[in-house]
Specification:
Blueprint lengths: L6 H26 L10 H38 L2
Helix pairs in contact: 1-2
């Protein structure tokens, strides 16, 4: 089991996650929202935003899992070959 992150590292990770989330929302908003003349989103815009967000989050999760796996393998290799 991993040791807990120190507070400074926790803040850095949180900051990176928030930036990623904001960048994702901005990107999906630019791709999906066609008009700012209405106070509500059109159904097509809502569907587009939902699909964009789900697809992007799925991609980020897969990338995160790949990095975690690579890190684990690297850690095991370094322990086996001190």
């Amino acid at each position: 089991m991993q040791a807990p992150l120190d507070p400074r590292m926790q803040r850095m990770v949180m900051k990176q996650e928030l930036k990623l989330y904001n960048d994702l929302l901005n990107s999906c908003f630019k791709d999906c929202v066609r008009s700012l003349n209405n106070t509500k989103l059109y159904k097509e815009e809502c569907v587009c935003l939902e699909n964009c967000f789900k697809k992007s989050m799925s991609s980020y999760m897969k990338i995160g899992e790949a990095f975690a796996y690579a890190s684990m393998v690297k850690g095991q290799a370094s322990q086996a070959n001190p």
